[in-house]
Design goal:
This protein is mainly alpha-helical and about 300 residues long. Helices cover about 90% and strands about 0% of the residues. The protein contains ten helices and no strands. α2 packs antiparallel against α3 and α2 runs parallel beside α5. The model has no long low-confidence stretch (mean pLDDT about 80).
């Protein structure tokens, strides 16, 4: 590991140290939500096999009530995590921005000679937002996906190792597909940020020179430059949006392809008596635990690659 990376890691841990109690609570809630996620498909299997297939209304009612409690508990945990990370993110954003502001006030005057206020503010907001994103709720969700994948794999192999191998074969395909599209989107986002910074720089210069624009009647030429720069920014934004759309298209198509294959193979196993209907439903649920989070984990990996080059 590079020395700069180690130093950056130390700074990040030092930066996160004031929020260690909050992260401890989040860690406990992650463990509980992982257990809840593992139990839900099993409860659905019990409702189907022991309740509906046997006509046992007592089992259906008790299992449905237990499922409702699991869902309610999971949503309560979700709200708690949202509140914790909202507080932590706001506090960290303020701390970083305040430190940057104090640093800015002590810089030499030469730093401001070739930069305007709009350009400086644009740079600061982007950089502070990227650093403070370490405390975003998205980060803990990405970490929770690791536990979700593990619980899903356990559930898959408990029900049918043959079908589990089918799901595992689809994971590398989705990984390569999503990784390629995510890299394209990352390049487009970098280009969009650079164009936005260029526009902020130009906009600040124009606002500072508005007297000269009025004096020399440069309204038409300034309007033309504004149109060109905004069209450039919006064109890249559209490309970024379309890449995200294609990403979603292929992800959904691949996930449903896996589901269709599982229903076909699961139906065959039901007909041969190797699996029950409830087991197939539970298996499909567990398969989404494994294939679904791939995109989030790839984006998380690319995010850390930007921080630790």
């Amino acid at each position: 590991m590079k020395r700069e990376t180690k130093q950056l890691l130390v700074r990040i841990f030092r930066y996160l140290s004031p929020y260690k109690r909050a992260f401890l609570v989040v860690g406990l809630t992650l463990a509980v939500s992982t257990v809840i996620g593992f139990l839900q498909p099993l409860v659905i299997q019990r409702i189907t096999d022991n309740g509906m297939m046997r006509g046992d209304m007592a089992v259906i009612a008790s299992s449905a009530l237990f499922l409702a409690l699991l869902i309610l508990g999971n949503q309560a945990i979700d709200l708690l995590q949202t509140r914790i990370f909202a507080d932590v993110h706001n506090a960290s954003y303020y701390t970083i921005f305040h430190q940057v502001f104090e640093k800015l006030l002590h810089l030499k005057k030469s730093y401001f000679e070739d930069k305007n206020s709009a350009e400086i503010l644009s740079f600061l907001q982007m950089d502070v937002s990227q650093v403070s994103s370490v405390t975003d709720r998205y980060m803990v969700l990405s970490v929770s996906y690791v536990f979700r994948i593990l619980s899903g794999l356990i559930g898959l192999f408990l029900i049918s190792w043959k079908l589990a191998l089918v799901v595992l074969c689809m994971v590398p395909v989705k990984f390569l597909l999503v990784r390629g599209l995510s890299q394209r989107q990352e390049r487009a986002v970098d280009e969009m940020l650079e164009n936005s910074r260029d526009f902020s720089r130009w906009f600040g210069d124009d606002m500072n020179g508005v007297d000269e624009i009025k004096l020399w009647n440069l309204f038409q030429s300034r309007d033309q430059v504004f149109r060109e720069k905004q069209e450039k920014v919006l064109r890249v934004q559209k490309r970024t949006t379309m890449i995200g759309g294609w990403n979603t298209f292929w992800e959904v198509l691949l996930e449903w392809s896996v589901t269709v294959v599982l229903y076909i193979l699961g139906g065959w196993l039901i007909c041969t008596g190797a699996l029950t209907i409830g087991a197939v439903f539970a298996f499909v649920s567990y398969s989404s635990y494994v294939t679904g989070p791939v995109s989030a984990l790839i984006n998380l990996k690319m995010y850390f690659a930007r921080i630790f080059p």
